[in-house]
Amino acid sequence: MTEKYTESIYPRVSPSALTFENEQENDYRLKHVEDVKYELERHSNIRKSLRKRYSNLNSSLDCSNYALNTVSCVSGVASVSLLSTVALIQVYRAVVLTTLLYGSETWVTYSSHIRLLERLHQRCLRTILQIHWSDLVTNVEVLEQAEIPSIEALIAKSQLRWAGHVFRMKDHRLPKIALYGEIRSGHRYRGAPKKRYKDCLKKTFTACNIDHQNWSDYAADRSAWRLISSKGVTLFEETRRDTIKNKRSRRKARAASAVSQDPAFSCRLCSRACRSRIGLFSHERSCRQRGHSLPS
């Protein structure tokens, strides 16, 4: 163990002293940190880690877009046409997603974390597929074109795989002790309890149509658990996409019924009804930018 690369992290209060015995050198104190890059953070909170990954990946995307645009200006070739779309998506899955979701097997995720990751996921896919916001392509359609699941489904798949792996471990292994262990003494601080990894895992089981009380019976067999997990994640992704589509269709139906009561604000280019005059003005400007013209 090297002193330079050895750090310590504690759940809440760090002890006053912690030394490491080294036969060649004197005792030294481990450096205490609040979080470890791409690994741990206090209270099982991944907010800082996700923010770091989000900013780093955004910077990488900006730099890569600048480099590709520079090459395209010199060679006269479109930037994305340097590689096929299939190859770009394969590189994205192999490099970007593996780095972005590193350690997601043990994450305790909230809806805010999922929204942040999904937003970055959509930005990368839309850049690869050359989809602009003015094309009016939904997020579900982007995933279908790229033939790639959502971030939430990828996290669920990794957590199910890790849960089965931990269950098949020996009883003396630390991951299994941490998963099945209980606190012997102590008290909880005032306020709502923190979300635990067990709670997150139970929610994943329910979403993937897996019995959370008898899941260990299936996890004992590795091949069977892999098949059940794959089917469960596929069902979860299909249900998620259908829910989003139905929610969007209901929202569009309500908007259409509200606009139909006052059809005075109708676009002269595409005949789309708007709710107000300023909305009609903005919509017609967007239509002109997309190349629409007045019907003859």
UniProtKB/TrEMBL annotation:
Source taxon at top rank: Eukaryota
Descriptive protein name: C2H2-type domain-containing protein
Species of origin: Plakobranchus ocellatus
